[in-house]
Automatic annotation (TrEMBL):
Protein known as: NFKB inhibitor delta
Keyword Repeat: yes
Pfam annotation, one family: Ank_2
Record organism: Myotis myotis
ANK repeats (start-end): 76-112
InterPro entries assigned to the protein according to its UniProt record, in alphabetical order: Ankyrin_rpt (IPR002110), Ankyrin_rpt-contain_sf (IPR036770)
Gene Ontology annotations for the cellular component aspect, listed alphabetically: nucleus
Lineage of the organism: Eukaryota, Metazoa, Chordata, Craniata, Vertebrata
Alphabetized SUPFAM superfamilies for the sequence: Ankyrin repeat
The keyword Cell inner membrane belongs to this UniProt entry's keyword annotation: no
Alphabetized Gene3D superfamilies for the sequence: Ankyrin repeat-containing domain (1.25.40.20)
GO biological processes: regulation of gene expression
Length: 133
């Protein structure tokens, strides 16, 4: 029997600790809709950019007023769906795109370059059955 890779075990412990920290901050009243001053990114934009599927799902499940407005917030013209479309193709991209679309992300929104999220998909083997339309 092969023992688990110690590096992946450490990474999973670190990921769990980071998620616990975020959950604690949210529980203490941190506003997940706040935007960075320089980039206008929300924590959702940052989670998508990091391809952190678990954090994206957590943020989309938070009780909030207008989920569609939160999901479609722009950071320098890009929504979280634009950022997800620009991720490398793979299971993280597919899961994040599915979560965002289910939460009301609008695939017709355009960024400052007049691009819709579908225009930002990278070439290569795409996710099976996922369409940003």
């Amino acid at each position: 029997m092969v023992s688990p890779d110690p590096c992946s075990r450490v990474l999973s412990i670190q990921a769990r600790d980071r998620l616990s920290c975020v959950q604690m901050l949210l529980h203490m009243g941190a506003d997940h809709t706040s935007q960075e001053i320089k980039s206008n990114k929300t924590v959702l934009h940052l989670a998508v950019q990091a391809a952190n599927t678990v954090l994206v799902q957590l943020l989309l499940e938070l009780p909030q007023g207008d989920l569609r407005a939160f999901v479609n917030m722009k950071a320098h013209g890009n929504t979280a769906l634009h950022m997800a479309a620009a991720l490398p193709p793979g299971p993280h991209q597919e899961a994040i795109v599915r979560h965002l679309l289910a939460a009301g992300a609008d695939p017709a929104l355009r960024n400052l370059e007049n691009e819709q999220p579908i225009h930002l998909l990278r070439p290569g083997p795409g996710p099976e059955g996922v369409s940003i339309e």
